[in-house]
Design goal:
Helix content is 50%, strand content 11%. By secondary structure, it is mostly helical. The chain has a single domain, classed as 3-Layer(aba) Sandwich (Rossmann fold).
Length: 110
């Protein structure tokens, strides 16, 4: 299991020593996402996406999974894939599973 997947160790991992989590930025992004959801701006914008879309996340991502699942529901012709044993950066934590999900989607985006 990846050290990054264990959210209690996020700041123990050398990568996060170089790039610490910016909690104030995260709060601002969450607030903006909530505002866009409440005003209907987010659903209105993402429902106009015309290309096949992959919404990819890790099962241990600290951001709420319901939000990503909801996003996938709003985007026509989208697919939501959750990578097991990965957190916020599945391409680093589970590169093989992430590559497989991307390849599967690109081979059959419908």
């Amino acid at each position: 299991m990846s050290d990054l997947y264990d959210v209690t160790r996020l700041n123990d991992v050398p990568r996060y020593d170089r790039f610490p989590i910016n909690y104030s930025l995260n709060s601002a992004l969450n607030a903006e996402e909530n505002r866009m959801e409440e005003t209907g701006e987010l659903p209105s914008k993402v429902s106009r996406i015309k290309v096949p879309t992959l919404v990819l996340d890790g099962e241990g991502d600290p951001r709420p999974r319901w939000a990503r699942a909801h996003l996938a529901q709003l985007i026509p012709n989208s697919r939501h894939v959750t990578i097991a044993r990965a957190g916020h950066e599945p391409w680093i934590e589970q590169p093989e599973a992430t590559t497989r999900a991307l390849r599967d989607f690109l081979m059959d985006p419908t």
